[in-house]
Structure formats: C-alpha cells, structure tokens
Design goal:
The chain is an alpha+beta fold. The chain contains 11 helices and 29 strands.
C-alpha cells in the first residue's frame, strides 16, 4: 500500500503555510470519503451498492429510501462513507465521468467470469483523468467459471498492476450477491481515506457538486447536492452556473428534513429558480450574490454556447429529424440526449429541440406538431387525455432505457427519407444562346457525352460551379421536334430555366434521380 499517492479529484481550497510550517492538510476536520463505483455493465455495480446499503444502513432507514437522490451515506465501524450512485448503462458515460470528478476514491468492479471489457477500460480512463486513488473489486467469485487470475492478467495488460501481482493497486475478490469479502473492500476504502487524509472546514459556506435534478409537480425544482466542503443551511443563497435561488428546504438521503448539512453529505435541496446542470459546481452564501457576478456568469455562458454552436453545428442537415426529450430526472435527460447525438445516421441528422425533466404536456405536443418532432418520454406521465394517431406515431415512451433507445432509433429511421441516387444521362456544350425570357431559355449546343432526353432534369455548370437547375422542355434537330439527341450531334433545346442567363461555353448536365 505504500505506493498509493494522495490524489483528490476535486480541487480543495488551500491555505498558505503559517509560521509553524503547517500546510492546508493540517487545517480543518477529517472528511468522510466520497466513493464512486465504476465498471462494465452487468459486472455487479448496482448489486454491490445495494448490498452495502442494506447491510450498513439501519433496516428501518433503508426501507425509507424511496427517492433517487444519486448518493447515500453508510456508517461502517463508526465511520461514515458516502457512495455516489452512478448509472451503469453505456449512455451514462458523461455522468460517470462527472461522478469520478466528484469523488475521492473509486472502486473498479470487474466480473471474475467476464474479465476486462470496453466499459472497464473507459472507467479506468475516467479514474486516471480524475487522478483518483482506487481499489479493484473482482466480483462474482461465487460463479463456477470465475477466474480472478485471468482478470488480474487482463488488468496488467491495461497498465493496472494489483498488489498480489507485485503492483501498487489494492484488490479484493468479492461476491456482491453473497456479500463475500465486502467488509474487506470497505476496510480498503477506509485505509485509502486514511492515507489521503481528506480534510474540510465546516465553518465555511457550503460548496460542492450538483448530482441530480428534477421538476417535482408539488415542490418545484429539486436538486440533489453533494457537499464537498463547508456547511449549507436553510436560508442560504445558492448559485450553480445560471441557476440561483434561496434554500427553502433540505432533506437527507433518507428523506428526513434537516436544517443544515456539512461536507461529504448528499442532500436534497429545494429553492432553485431554474434547473441547475448535473455535474455543475454550486456555492452558497448567507447574503444574495452580487448582480455583477450574475451578469458575468450570463456573459460567460453566452460566449461558451456561441462557441459550442459554431463548432458543432453542421453546415448542411439533410433529412433533419427533430427530437423532444422528456424524462424523470435531469441525469436521464442528459444520458438520452448524449446517446441520441452519438447515433450514426447514413442519410440524416438529429436536432434536439428540447431536453428537460418533467411530464409530457400540451406544449410539448404543440411543438412536436409544428416541427414534426418525435417525443421521447422516459419514465414520465403523458399529459394528453386522448392522443391522435399522429401524436401516437411521434411518441416513444417507456421505463427501460435500453428499450426506449432502440425504439427511438427505429422511429428516427422511419422519418429519414431514402437517400436519392443520381444517374447522369448526358452532357451538352452550349454553342449559342437564341432566346431568353422569363422562366424560359432557348439555346443551341453539341452533345459531348451520353444523350439529351426531353423531359428530364438538368443543371448548368459554369467554371466548375453549378449555377442552377431546370428541365428540358423541347428538343429540335434539323427543325424537327425529337425525343432525344445522341452524342456528337447538335440540337436546339428549350429549357424551363429562369435565372441566371445561360452563356456560351456553359455545360448542360442531364440527370435522373433513382
């Protein structure tokens, strides 16, 4: 364990050295660690979290956990540990990255029967980027096909050398299902916390990370906060990005009302006037934030959004499919939005018109009708009493994220028109211009490739640039009306073509869409 370094993921406030030579680690109080459990889908992260919660939170309290706050506290050997409850589906990669940034210690879960997988490697990248101390939990050792040594070998191939293989990363072989060696895992977490000496100052105004948000029909905007330093109280002013407010109510992770809360605690706060963003930092104060600060934040946000739009907005959006996302909580909204934005489309593009937490209401259906948008409704109620066939066709709702994403992709594909292939028929070099009038032009020329056919579409090429499109409406050769003119022959051509005027030397390209 000697090789484990003191690495924190969130920048902590520092104090200058005093005359005694003490650093900021000497100040403040010992702070419980914040732990994030990460790893590949189906490797047992949720089961491990459930087991830890059920065995380390009093039974009457654990039964009272009915709300999704995004984190919870346990008491282990008279010491507190906070666990971030980050989702496991691949669509939540951004949230897992944010979860790592909010944590002090990571537990990397790898299934003993499955080994290192893509999300295992992705989780390692998040851990390394956030510079977290971490422990490897090799799960599912109760399975007959479990092979912990194979897992350690695969970890070594990805630059993670555990202690039993001569490295510096602690590991433990567990069964989250049966609870085998979970207490050893908690002991390792406490040891890492002791080595890192996490400190905080309860006398400071509270600050931390937004870990969840949603719009409650009865209580309004509700935000789950993870306090990383200081203390927050009812009546404090709070600011996170553009979202500000005054804390009217606080609840702990069990839903019990509290008057204040301090570092490493997850709490639910009511009082924001606008939904804050998940992963955004928050700060509190006993007096209102200055107008200058609010203006500066708005200017910064505007510049950031402008740069973002300029860099990612496609210049052409053929077959644009509009999407409205409504979900139960903001983390679900962001996960669905990210997953859809990553969806590869061969002949189209996705535009998110709206993405917010809350039930589907009448204004959502109106917006969908005006823009022919799909409404993606995840784990929310549908406000309309009776839906028209068109509304049903444009609504994808459900409570399982895998299923709703799959069905949304199918609905998107249905809205995308088949890619139009173009077949070039022939080309003509313009030798003379006979007449030009409103919407019509008559020219003479020679067929240089293929053939010219009456009634087909055409475009005019000048200096390697297409200057317009039209249609062949008449063909004459030797003063006779004909249906087509073959290569190397000359003809007079009447065109349904307005502006600009065709010039001698232009090339007429005939094509057919298939």
């Amino acid at each position: 364990m000697a090789g484990i370094e003191n690495k924190n993921s969130i920048p902590r406030p520092t104090r200058p050295n005093d005359s005694s030579g003490r650093t900021e680690q000497s100040f403040g109080q010992a702070r419980p660690p914040v732990v994030v459990i990460m790893g590949h889908v189906d490797h047992g992260k949720t089961k491990l979290l459930d087991y830890i919660r059920k065995t380390n939170v009093a039974e009457h309290e654990a039964g009272g956990i009915t709300q999704h706050i995004g984190a919870y506290e346990i008491t282990y050997k008279s010491r507190k540990i906070t666990f971030l409850d980050t989702p496991g589906h691949e669509a939540f990669s951004k949230l897992r990255a944010r979860g790592a940034k909010a944590a002090d210690i990571a537990v990397l879960v790898v299934a003993a029967d499955d080994g290192v997988k893509p999300q295992t490697i992705e989780a390692l990248e998040h851990i390394k980027k956030a510079e977290l101390s971490f422990v490897v939990a090799i799960n599912k050792i109760d399975k007959p096909e479990a092979n912990p040594e194979k897992v350690k070998k695969e970890l070594a191939e990805n630059d993670v050398l555990v202690e039993s293989w001569g490295g510096k990363v602690p590991s433990v072989e567990i069964s989250a299902k049966q609870g085998t060696n979970v207490s050893q895992l908690l002991d390792l977490i406490e040891l890492l916390a002791d080595l890192n000496e996490f400190k905080a100052d309860s006398q400071k105004p509270g600050e931390g990370i937004i870990i969840e948000t949603n719009l409650d029909p009865r209580r309004g905007i509700v935000a789950s906060l993870l306090i990383l330093d200081g203390t927050i109280k009812i009546g404090n002013y709070i600011s996170s990005g553009e979202a500000t407010g005054k804390i009217k109510m606080l609840e702990d992770f069990l839903g019990n009302p509290v008057k204040d809360a301090t570092f490493s605690s997850p709490v639910l706060a009511i009082g924001f006037t606008k939904l804050p963003l998940i992963g955004e930092k928050f700060v509190t104060a006993e007096i209102p934030f200055s107008p200058a600060l609010k203006v500066a934040k708005k200017i910064g946000e505007f510049i950031e959004k402008s740069l973002e739009i300029e860099s990612i907005e496609p210049k052409e959006t053929p077959n644009l499919v509009n999407i409205i996302i409504k979900a139960d909580v903001q983390s679900s909204v962001e996960a669905l939005k990210e997953s859809l934005e990553k969806t590869p489309l061969e002949n189209g593009a996705i535009k998110i018109l709206k993405a917010e937490a809350g039930n589907v209401n009448e204004s959502d259906f109106k917006m969908a009708a005006l823009s022919d948008a799909l409404i993606l409704a995840f784990n929310v109620k549908i406000g309309a009493v009776s839906l028209t066939e068109k509304q049903k066709e444009n609504l994808v709702s459900g409570e399982i994220i895998y299923d709703i994403l799959d069905r949304t992709k199918i609905a998107i594909e249905k809205k995308i028109k088949p890619k139009v292939e173009r077949e070039e028929i022939g080309r003509l070099n313009v030798l003379a211009v006979f007449r030009q009038e409103k919407g019509r032009q008559v020219i003479g020329g020679k067929v240089i490739s293929g053939e010219i056919v009456k009634g087909v579409r055409m475009e005019v090429l000048r200096n390697d640039t297409i200057i317009g499109q039209g249609r062949i409406i008449s063909l004459q050769s030797e003063k006779k009306e004909i249906g087509k003119v073959e290569v190397s022959r000359e003809a007079g051509i009447g065109l349904d073509f307005g502006e600009p005027k065709i010039l001698v030397g232009d090339i007429i390209i005939l094509f057919r869409k298939t």
